[in-house]
Automatic annotation (TrEMBL):
Its EC number is 3.1.3.7. It is an enzyme of class 3 (hydrolase). Converts adenosine 3'-phosphate 5'-phosphosulfate (PAPS) to adenosine 5'-phosphosulfate (APS) and 3'(2')-phosphoadenosine 5'-phosphate (PAP) to AMP. Mg(2+) binds at residues 63, 120, 122-123, 260. Coiled coil: none annotated. This is 3'(2'),5'-bisphosphate nucleotidase. CDD domains: PAP_phosphatase. Keywords: Hydrolase, Magnesium, Metal-binding. It comes from the Eukaryota. GO terms for molecular function: 3'(2'),5'-bisphosphate nucleotidase activity; metal ion binding. It comes from Wickerhamiella sorbophila.
Length: 317
């Protein structure tokens, strides 16, 4: 039940985002930031509305709130038009005033106990704007642990990708814009760590790319890193296109947001991988809206994760 609702909601929001992105890329004002803002609000509204109808009591930790929309009627009208097109029969979104409430329902502070959804309506803002990777990410967290994750990646592969995982049930891929039977996915087998390929952020402000390059060299890795925005990185590892995702902090005071990692976390573990922080601890999704007890992220196949962790710790001594 949860999986079907989450997949349907992510699909609807991904289509909405894809429509805006296509239009943005073909337009002449590529420096305009507003398309991603519009897509972000629209995606959050349709997903939270679907969740609230299926699971009325469940709180949602969503990245956005509606303050900027309430203050800007032109922006609100653009978002409203998109939402009506993407979800015309949604009775929770029958009037424009409901739009604000749906978006603001993502204001949950987070909790260590009980159910909560974590939502990043458009992850990889920068990727969206440059025509690269971005992702619509939704996860169900129960008692601080991720139980279900769904990620929509409109630009990953020729047909886009809808990735999903439920604890104990494996990880799956299916095309994003057409209905078809999900295919099971998993990490690829590599003989040794030196054969691995790194996947990392494009943005040097989001992870310590220089240090990561040194770590790759210390592991004997000569393959160039694959750089992409958003949780599409987790998806790439889970489907066997790369082997290690490192996200080492640029600033030690930055707290990673739970919506940037929750869905990817279960996708990795269900595809045969391990995710820890740079101290080797599992990510704790029960500390509020951020991963405040963790620093950095290391995701890798089970067989090589401990080698990578050792190399990270040596580099950071
Ligand atoms: N200083 C920082 N360190 C790490 N992550 C950061 C950061 N500043 C912003 N981010 C997060 O990095 C996410 C994108 O990560 P990536 O580089 O892997 O694409 C952003 O998500 P949004 O794009 O949803 O805002 C944002 O939440
Ligand atoms: Mg994000």
């Amino acid at each position: 039940m949860e999986l079907q609702v989450a997949k349907q909601a992510v699909r609807t929001a991904s289509k909405l985002a894809h429509t805006v992105a296509q239009h943005h890329i073909s337009s002449i004002s590529k420096s305009d930031q507003s398309p991603v803002t519009v897509a972000d609000f629209g995606a959050q509204a349709v997903i939270i509305s679907a969740l609230k109808q299926a699971f009325p009591g469940d709180p949602v930790v969503g990245e956005e709130d509606a303050a900027a929309l309430r203050a800007d009627d032109t922006l609100a009208n653009k978002v409203w038009a998109l939402v009506k097109e993407a979800a015309p029969h949604d009775k929770n979104l029958s009037e424009r005033t409901n739009l604000f409430a749906a978006i603001d329902a993502g204001n949950y502070a987070g909790s260590a106990k009980g159910r909560q959804w974590a939502l990043d309506p458009i992850d990889g803002t920068k990727g969206f704007l440059r025509g690269g990777q971005y992702a619509v990410c939704l996860a169900l967290i129960v008692d601080s642990r991720v139980e279900l994750g769904v990620i929509g990646c409109p630009n990953l592969g020729p047909r886009g990708g809808l990735f999903s995982a439920v604890r104990g049930k494996g990880a799956f891929w299916e095309p994003l814009f057409e209905e078809s039977t999900p295919e099971k996915i998993s990490f690829r087998h590599i003989e040794s760590t030196k054969d691995a390929t790194f996947c990392e952020s494009v943005e040097s402000g989001h992870s310590a790319l220089d240090t990561q390059l040194k770590i790759a060299q210390s592991l004997g890795i000569s393959n160039p890193p694959v750089q992409m925005d958003s949780q599409a990185k987790y998806c790439s590892l889970a489907k066997g296109d790369a082997d290690i995702y490192l996200r080492l902090p640029v600033r030690m005071d930055y707290e990673e947001k739970i919506w940037d990692h929750a869905a990817g976390n279960i996708l990795i573990t269900e595809a045969g991988g391990v995710v820890t922080d740079m101290n080797g601890n599992l990510l704790d999704f029960g500390k509020g809206r951020t991963l405040k007890d963790n620093k950095g992220v290391i995701a890798a196949a089970k067989s090589i994760h401990s080698d990578v962790l050792k190399a990270v710790q040596k580099a950071l001594l």
